[in-house]
Amino acid sequence: MTAPAKYADLTGTYTLDPAHTRIGFVARHAMVTKVRGAFNEFSGTAEIDGANPEKSSATVTINVHSIDTRNADRDGHLRSNDFLQMDEYPEITFVSTEVARSGDDTFDVTGDLTIKGVTRTLTIPFSYEGTAQDPFGNTRIGFEGSVVINRKDFGITWNAALETGGVLVSDKVTLEFEVSAVKNA
Q1: Domain count, the chain
Q2: Are the CB atoms for 62 and 91 separated by under 8 Å?
Q3: Which domain holds residue 77?
Q4: Which residue ranges does the record assign to the Lipid/polyisoprenoid-binding YceI-like domain (predicted)?
Q5: Most buried among 20, 29, 36, 111, by the most CB within 10 A?
């Protein structure tokens, strides 16, 4: 696929803007509701090639300590050895290995996600949300994407059986990405 002309001006190196980016997750709790959370501390860069998107790349590093589900006890449990083993594995990383256009404004970003020292390759479908000049003269781009992972694939196996059947925490977790990145000068 040839890249649309509107992407030509996007070529460059971008840095994630943590104040306007959300890296979140959703997991089913007690089989009846969803718990949403986010990681509040992370860094990342993207090398965008507007003319040849397949030459683009991205990396993200997430601070596990920054997990936030709006419940201090739950966050403490998620940081513990039962789940993310924060002391031994303080970071979650994603390093892209391939970018492919899947439509006019959609891209599949394939890469290596590492959680708790376990690396799995996955593909995250992203949609291009647009480009804007902010009030400070910076070029910003926006992308949104999500992917479902199985937490057991990353060695996160803790759970509790419910008296009514089922388990306390779902194996499937949806990772959500709402990205705003600023073009480096």
Answers
A1: 1
A2: yes
A3: 5-183
A4: 13-182
A5: 111
